[in-house]
């Protein structure tokens, strides 16, 4: 089967985790860049990454990569791509993208030039001048970074973090992809007890449960590329059937979610039901100060309120001090806390065994990991 090159954008800081995830799925030539991972594979890989990736924001088919310093170069290189290989004569192909630290910095001009170049390329093959754009949608994305141009087709068509289970959320929900990355960093397994003592709408625990059960996050999602002519429908059916057959419900995994906000707990329960993991998570009203568990081993993952968002800084720091007291150092236990406060470790009272810089939305954070 023909091989294609793909680009999977992701949150900054999770590139390595996404690379490992994609390699595990069978991706080849995996290469992490800033904010995205490049890889190769056949069309089944495209479907698999969309259905199974917990960390990628989208899966883009990279049609070309080149340097351009002028609009003419951009036009000629885009025109040289054989667009009829991808786009049918009725294809709708909106173009959008971004320019960063490059000679070509006008997004609207680049957009117009790329569109015109694609039309010119299609004209030579389809022998017509007008393209009605009333068929399937092929979103064209471009990225011009330090004069390096990437021209891509958005195979997902929607952000993959929108799994569909979070119909409702509380005040400061975390992106599902970030929650999944925290589960990866905390090495959640199918025999683990996972606890989130400030669970909000339950995102971290739902992602942990889906990982433990090997439940693909977008098994029932619909992707733009399912409407594309050059991808046989059987590829999607086969990948879904295979992914479904690998779901495991016979696991010993269980998660516990606590919060002081009853509304958040009600939302969590509903979200867990939508995600199909309600049997594996127990939600309960409990204050962090009363955190105490007798499990022999457990994985604690926590996204507490930050000074910037739900509490003022001194209230948030009081909470970090409480964490330092109740998150007792014990063999078999690990604690992961994501937080933007530079004084977190000081308040917590211990230096983390491992730290990882991550972004929660636009907020620069650290994941502080304690496991020794
Ligand atoms: C940033 S939100 C968590 C968001 C969650 N990760 C999600 O995706 O929805 C922090 C949560 O901590 C809860 N919280 C605040 N103080 C708490 C305390 N003392 N004990 C337990 N939960 C608390 C808040 O009610 C809020 O739901």
If you had to describe this structure to a student in words, what would you say it looks like?
This protein has two domains: 4-154, VC0802-like; 176-213 and 248-370, Vaccinia Virus protein VP39 (Rossmann fold), CATH 3.40.50.150. Strand 13 (354-360) and strand 14 (363-370) form a beta hairpin. The radius of gyration is 23 Å and the shape is elongated. By secondary structure, the chain is an alpha/beta fold. The protein has ten helices and 14 strands. The protein has a seven-stranded mixed sheet. The chain has a seven-stranded mixed sheet with strand order 10-9-8-11-12-14-13, with helices on one face. The structure holds S-adenosylmethionine. S-adenosylmethionine (SAM) binds at residues 169-170, 172-174, 197-198, 200-201, 203-204, 258-261, 264, 287-288, 303-305, 310, 319.
Sum up the structure in keywords:
VC0802-like, 23% strand, seven-stranded mixed sheet, alpha/beta, Rossmann fold, 14 strands, 372 residues, 2 domains, elongated, binds S-adenosylmethionine
Any idea what the shape is? elongated
Helix content percent band: 25-40%
* Name of the top-level CATH class of the largest domain: Alpha Beta
What is the CATH topology classification name of the largest domain? Rossmann fold
Structural class by SSE content: alpha/beta
Low-pLDDT runs: none
Largest sheet: 7 strands, mixed
Number of domains: 2
Kindly provide the radius of gyration, computed on alpha-carbon positions and rounded to a whole number of angstroms. Answer: 23 Å
């Amino acid at each position: 089967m023909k091989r294609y090159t793909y680009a999977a954008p992701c949150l900054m800081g999770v590139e390595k985790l996404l690379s490992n995830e994609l390699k595990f799925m069978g991706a080849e030539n995996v290469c992490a860049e800033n904010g995205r991972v490049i890889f190769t594979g056949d069309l089944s890989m495209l479907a698999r990454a969309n259905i199974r990736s917990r960390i990628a924001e989208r899966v883009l088919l990279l049609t070309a990569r080149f340097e351009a310093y002028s609009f003419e170069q951009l036009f000629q290189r885009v025109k040289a791509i054989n667009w009829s290989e991808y786009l049918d004569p009725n294809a709708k192909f909106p173009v959008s993208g971004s320019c960063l630290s490059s000679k070509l910095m006008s997004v609207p001009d680049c957009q117009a030039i790329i569109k015109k170049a694609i039309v010119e390329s299609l004209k030579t093959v389809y022998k017509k001048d007008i393209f009605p754009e009333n068929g399937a949608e092929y979103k064209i994305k471009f990225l011009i970074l330090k004069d390096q141009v990437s021209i891509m087709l958005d195979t997902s068509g929607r952000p993959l973090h929108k799994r569909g289970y979070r119909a409702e959320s509380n005040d400061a929900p975390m992106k599902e992809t970030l929650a999944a990355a925290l589960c990866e960093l905390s090495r959640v397994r199918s025999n683990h007890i996972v606890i989130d003592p400030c669970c909000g709408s339950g995102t971290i625990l739902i992602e942990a449960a889906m990982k433990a059960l090997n439940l693909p996050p977008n098994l029932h999602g619909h992707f733009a590329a399912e409407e594309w002519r050059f991808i046989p429908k059987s590829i999607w059916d086969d990948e879904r059937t295979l992914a479904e057959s690998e779901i495991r419900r016979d696991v010993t995994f269980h998660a516990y979610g606590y919060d002081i906000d009853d509304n958040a707990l009600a939302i969590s329960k509903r979200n867990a039901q939508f995600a199909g993991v309600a049997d594996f998570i127990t939600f309960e009203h409990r204050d962090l100060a009363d955190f105490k568990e007798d499990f022999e081993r457990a994985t604690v993952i926590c996204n507490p309120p930050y000074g910037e968002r739900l509490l003022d800084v001194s209230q948030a720091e009081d909470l970090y001090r409480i964490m330092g007291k109740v998150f007792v150092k014990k063999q078999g236990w690990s604690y992961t806390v994501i937080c933007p406060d530079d004084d977190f470790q000081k308040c917590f009272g211990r230096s983390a065994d491992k730290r990882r810089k991550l972004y929660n939305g636009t907020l620069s954070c650290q994941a502080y990991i304690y496991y020794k």
